[in-house]
Amino acid sequence: xxxxxxxxxxxxxGRLVGNRYQLIERLGTGGMGTVWRGRDVLVEREVAVKEANxxxxxGQVERILREARAAARVNHPAAVTVHDIVIEDGHPWIVxxxxxxxxxxxxxxxxxxxxETEAARIALSVAEAxxxxxDRGVLHRDxxxxxxxxxxxxxxxxxxxxxxxIEGEEPLTRTGEFVGSLAFTAxxxxxxHRPGSAADLWSLxxxxxxxxxxxxxxxxxxxxxxxxxxxxxxxxxxxVAQLAGLVEKLLAKDPGDRPPVERAVAVLGAVxxxxxxxxxxxxxxxxxxxxxxxxxxxxxxxxxAATTVAPAEVxxxxxxxxxxxxxxxxxxxxxxxxxxxTRAPRAPGRMRPWSVVVLTVVLLGALAWGITRLxxxxxxxxxxxxxxxxxxxxxxxxxxxxxxxxxxxxxxxxEVPAGWKRHSRNAEGQYRYTAGEFELIVGPGRDxxxxxxxxxxxxxxxxxxxxxxxxxxxxxxxxxxxxxxxDGHQAARGAYSWTTEDGRNIYAENLxxxxxxxxxxxxxxxxPEGNREDITRLHAQAVASYTPR
Length: 549
Fold this sequence. Notes:
Protein Transport Mog1p, Chain A, Phosphorylase Kinase, domain 1, nine-stranded antiparallel sheet, 3 domains, 24% strand, six-stranded antiparallel sheet, 22% helix, alpha+beta, Transferase(Phosphotransferase), domain 1
């Protein structure tokens, strides 16, 4: 742990943790906790003491203990050393070596870009630390300049194993979530796949690029733009020659096309030693280590528009003999969807799948809820004899999914769970179908402003009215950003979570489809955060059946 950050006075200074480690000054505070410069009074040596910030975060204790276990497994001079773990008053404290110096991020703010041989020397130590970690079944998952410390005598130390994954241990987070720094996160993690050591090598490639070029190849001015750059852009080095081939291979979109860490070490060693490199960089990356991704904080732009609600008009017809059941109404019984549910197909070629990308902050927790069939949102209930209007008629086609009703609107057609209410088109141009706290929203014919397919992801983050509540929320997250195809049309999807002003946690699956001309169609399904699997399942069915006109 570095002393490069400026120390700060604090009332806890002088405290003796575990009757052994005296806190001297606070070096800094991050998402995982506070780091102190301390002194081991038993053996009279300086140490770094990391205090977990666990207030209101029940999973944080296990997370910081996992950090200590992960770092302690890696026995290498280029990996930070863990001396001790103390549990005091329910708070875990990690005692680590204190590295005098600064972080690579601080160096790059003063001096950037770096000479090729110096960048290779730093990257070599990081690669060797990663090799040692991977040998012990540990994925670092957050390789970036801020986590690389530069000590005396040219020592380089990889630190902050706070989001590392340890092979054989249960993940701390739900499938489809991850933590990390977006501009340094490998494409396979963004797409929700279970990454192996090749994901750390991608981050190493970005790290080298930043050092020798002086800028981040994927960092953009918004979250959607950064994700899009990671998924689609192919940056090339322009200032150096010897590292260009290695970086190109490390930044291969397919993890199987990246070289193993041993090959990276060989190339970096040759360049750092001033020897022309003749080592080929082609190779197969190591086998994946099973893991579930976690979370990352997101800040979004202010909302630009708000949605409105229209009165209920129609209850979608139910199948005979199924009235009143959760399956008939499409309202989930509880958490989780049934196994084997139909999912929307992936797009061919380079179109990105809609599997999960996370860029999420931990919300306050799933809201306990109960739902009554067709209670709606305060709209008047139609009588039992209510029939669909001509603008929302039930299709009798045999291909309609059981428990769903196909609606034929003037601008689109799709399947809606049987028993859901249909609302007339409102001032925002939305068609809404609701059941209790669940809401399916279709916004057809939006002006794309000339952006076309290139603006599909950015539109969701900056402009889309259906996501105004997400942009307004202080607690918000994005997941699932990626490109896909719907009925032959280019599209992009995302999954969004936010907390409302009254404390409700909302989860929404969102799709933007490029239709004829320069127009977007929006298909969104939202509901309680605790039912995200059901929302995903119902949205997938709506999208799979969606046909723009």
